[in-house]
Amino acid sequence: MLNTAIHWHESHDGIVSLVIDDPDRSVNTVNSAFIEALAASVERLELVQDRIAGVILSSAKKSFLAGGDLNRLMAVDPTGLREFVDDLNVRKSYTQRLEMLKRPVVAIINGPALGGGLELALCCHRSIGVDSGSTIVGLPEPTLGLIPGAGGIVRTVRRLGVDQALDSVLLTGRRLPIREAVDIGLIDDVAASAEAADAAARKWILSNPSVAARSATSMPKTPRPLPRPTATPTRRAIVRVANRSMHTDLETALHFESDMFGSVVVSDATKNSIRTHFFATNAVRKRAKNLSGLPASKLLLIPRDESAADKLKAGSWGEVADVGESTCAVGNANGPDVNVALPLMAEGEWPEMWLAPDFVGDGQRVAEYAAGVSRAGEAAISTLATAGVVAIPVAPGMGSFGRILAAALAQAVKDCESLGYGAAAVDRALAWADLPSRRPPGSQEPFRSSIQEDVSLACRLLNHIAQAGIDAVASGTLVFPEDADVASVRAGGFPGWTGGVANWMAHGHRLAMDLYQASESEFGVKAAVQPWKRKVDK
After folding, report:
1. Is 341 strand, coil or helix?
2. Is the pTM of this model over 0.90?
3. Nearest-CA neighbor of 201 among 60, 133, 99, 104?
């Protein structure tokens, strides 16, 4: 008997519909129930493939399929790494067998398909997205410090070529609207509705009774040079898998992807990223959503000046709120960017809010707001959080926590240059740490034989910024001191691999040493003895 996470329906024309519908969750996820259901479905399809016409894979929910269990990934340590990778290869074998069926398999993507959802669609012979306004696809694992591990790198490279795969999908972790995904060739077609997609899928299956797996052949191309060493292991791992994918058979490439995924999963830098970017961020958002029991309604964001209006447009804030006219000028350097209003709110009830860039790159809008507002003001913030904004409360009159860190970075860079460090050395240190850099996008110096100075200077910069953040917390800038890590990463651009300013102050020395020693092992660079050791370390 099939697991109820996937339902089997067979029509009179011999087309099997596999409908993903986890009975225990509001969204379908790549959990144990799904894997068991997929295994049973693939085994059954292999038995009947000579008599069926093809397969349609779809979801009964508003989304297609979400990624894996991050709690499970957080629990993986080096002692269990081999077992984890072996299990991952078993899981991937089911999608590989689905891809190798004699009959065509079509995925209908009706709603978000991120991470494991897109990886499942990529193993199908054709994919059709439903243009419902909510259908997005992507491999956002890099924004969590991970790499795609269920075939996403291998199949994306073989489908798009290494350059487009890396630049448009893999290294950015972008969430692509369905029409953009079709334009670049990641998804094959788009339909106006689920019914139209189903009709198109059936027509294509009956017109293509026998198809070959799209990823079965390798694509010999010029490999992409590896990125220079940085503290985050994801970019180099993704490029390594992408390069291997072009020159080996599918199974070997998929196994190499699993090995690299496992090596990234056990990294403390990755666990820090997951903890801060996902779990802690969701806790901040949940708290803001629960601020008010008042019903949500349309917001009005009132810019304090024209630069704030430009930020609103650049951040796509219009998706969740109307953008009003500029009504007043910023009063001082710490002045907020916008006021937040709901219908019938008095002007004195408008919460003040600072806007932050998307430092993480996962598309989540981030704002700090002055806490202690009225009940109507809390309803406004709750409405923003319900729409997906990461809203971080700062104490009234204290200014933006994120901008305190930005000022600390600018001062740290200035101090280093006054001590004789050249601009190129500072830029390399910023790049190694994943701090906001002054370099033009895409620029990169040739790899040098030693990165000792880069790491030492990077840690000096990180220490300075983190100390400024801790001092701001001690002075009461944040309403909830436990928000320091999320606020520093989301609003201040502090590197996610550190876990945030508080985690860096507690564990940064050991973390940096581990990452440097990993670089030493990879590049044959002799590690110096604790070149960045802080005076407070014991």
Report:
1. strand
2. no
3. 104
